[in-house]
Amino acid sequence: MRSFLFVTLASLVASQNFEAPDFNVTEALVSQGVNVSLLSSLGASTERSSGVACSAACLSLNILYGDSAVEFRNESGYSAFTSSFWSSISREVRPYCIFKPSTPEAISVLVLLSRLSQCPFALKSGGHSAFAGAASIEGGITVSFENLKSIKLSDDKKTVAVQPGNVWEDVLANLSTTGVTVLGGRVGDIGVGGLTTGGGISFLTNEYGFACDNVASFDVITASGTVITASPTDHNDLYWALRGGGNNFGVVVSFNLLTKPLPSDLIWGGTRVFTEDVFPKVVQAFTDLTFNSAQDPKAGSWLVFAEVETKIAVTELWYGAPDGSKSHLIAPFYNITAVSDTTKTRSHAAYVMDNKAVQIFGVRQIYYDLTTKASYEMALQAADTYYNATKSLSAVEGLLPTLVFQHVTHGSLKGATRNGGNAMGWDTDGGPLLLILVACQWKNAADDDKVYQVLSNLMTAIKALSVDLNVQNDWVYMNYASQFQNVIASYGEENKKRLKTIASKYDPTSVFQTLQPGYFKLDRAPLPDARYFSH
User: Fold this and answer.
1) Which helix (H) or strand (E) holds 236?
2) Residue 11, pLDDT score
3) Which CATH class is domain 268-484?
4) Where are the domains of the chain?
5) Alpha-carbon distance 397 to 305, whole Å?
């Protein structure tokens, strides 16, 4: 009924468009070994998102791949899947079915079936997005990569091929005895796919750049069902676009990651917590590390402001080798009295697993971010703005808002220039950036609008503050953006135009804009809403 061999469909590749104008989806399915005569009901499915369309597509996947590969709403596996998302907002999404492919070829068929039926789909790697529709889709097909978890280190240990069903604790644990590691997420259950195509901050980012800047190549299934490799030498335009451009160009079925040496898998890091009386000193230490990172790029930090009975500042400090407290960039944090300290040397894999253990699952979540030029005054005044703004949410049950500062250092910016650069639109010759994230959790859906409005107003105020202090920067980090933010627009008009040109080449009928409508699209936010701050 089907073949597990990819076909190149080389005759379809034209000089301007990767897919021929007369491309026939049915013929492409036949070339993949699918007996379309058994799927005749798809011919009547013309209304996108209709029950008929998605019923036909899901039943077809069930015929092709069996009951174990497809979960329907009345099955226990369906409930187990939807309840596994980090954010309760994502848990509320009800796809028509869940598809669990075991081969990249099955994803190729899925894309073609979606085109034939016009049933939309979404892709789930780790499922750690805060908002609905990012990794699941109401009434459509949610594709779970959970059966695509291969991790293969090359013989020379220079690259490792990682499929998108892995989360970072899988990858780092697999590499922990090899003497090498990769730039991956800092929390163990973050998925490989979303983090990498959206940028990807690692414990090694100040030294080597973002995760997307350390990918040797991507194996991608295009809208025509064809598998291609995007690298600095092959389809290099697509390679550029996938580094920060999100899910707009194809389905990445293998990330071929560049490895970095890490003897014994050991790094240093942990948390130091400070009280309000030393906030200025903590901000100064963080700012100095940001500006001076090139002196010791193994050192890094993020800084969190929160209020848990009292106002606190929480610094996560790390170092890409053992004994990081000896670094002259980390030492200033130890000259400030802390109320707790968990810093220690441990394996890279253990560190991200420990960070996973303190995550809170199953509550409502929102992320919201913007960037400014790095500035002591900006950080200190933004903290005051945050504390004042969130007072109005005190009655919201289960509320925990935090203000998080991270740095995009000179080393991070230098990493973005490799192999033709990435799509994110940075001024790589400029100074370091301050990445400002507002993260908030709460309990009840009835409070959603109030939380969204207060946090939107907070972001607007922080943006205005950056203008007043002459440190404004327009870039928005995709992996921390809210559903109301038009991330691609923040990359600049030139990069947006280039991304759209590349998308039209590899996906001329806009499959990944219309049939995969979730997440950050080339022309819009996931949920455009003029009431809320965008960028």
Assistant:
1) helix 236-242
2) 34
3) alpha beta
4) 10-144, 151-262+492-514, 268-484
5) 20
Residues 6+ apart with CB under 8 A from 392: 454
pLDDT at 99: 98
Query: Could you count the other beta carbons within 10 Å of the beta carbon of residue 381?
Result: 17
Cβ burial 339-375 (10 Å sphere, 16+ → b, else e): eeeebebbbbbbbbbbbbeeeeeebbbbbbbbbbbbb
Task: Tell me the sheet residues that pair with 403.
Answer: 305, 438
| 164 phi/psi in degrees, rounded to 5 | -75, -5
* DSSP symbols for 140-171: SEEEE-TT---EEE-TTSSEEEE-TT-BHHHH
| Residue 349 CB contacts under 8 Å (≥ 6 apart), including other chains | 169, 172, 173, 175, 176, 265
Residues of the chain with pLDDT under 50: 1-16, 45-49
| Greatest distance between any 2 Cα atoms in the chain | 73
Q: What is the Cα–Cα distance from 315 to 305, expressed in whole angstroms?
A: 9
Identical topology for domains 10-144 and 268-484:
no
47-86 exposure pattern, b = at least 16 Cβ within 10 A, e = fewer: ebbeebbbbbbbbbbbebbeeebbbbeeeeebeebbebbb
pLDDT value at position 50? 61
CATH number for the segment(s) 151-262+492-514:
3.30.465.10
Token pair listed for 445? 């859906």
Q: Which pLDDT score is estimated for 48? A: 45
CB 32 within 8 A of CB 105: yes
Measured in degrees and rounded to the nearest 5, phi and psi for residue 308 equal -125, 90
Q: What is 10-144's CATH topology?
A: 3.30.43
Q: Which of 159, 291, 216, 228 is nearest to 18 (CA)?
A: 228
Q: Are 26 and 55 in contact (CB under 8 A)?
A: no
> Which DSSP symbol is given to 59?
H
**Pairwise CA distance, residues 329 & 297, whole Å:** 9
Interatomic CA distance for residues 19 and 10, integer angstroms? 10
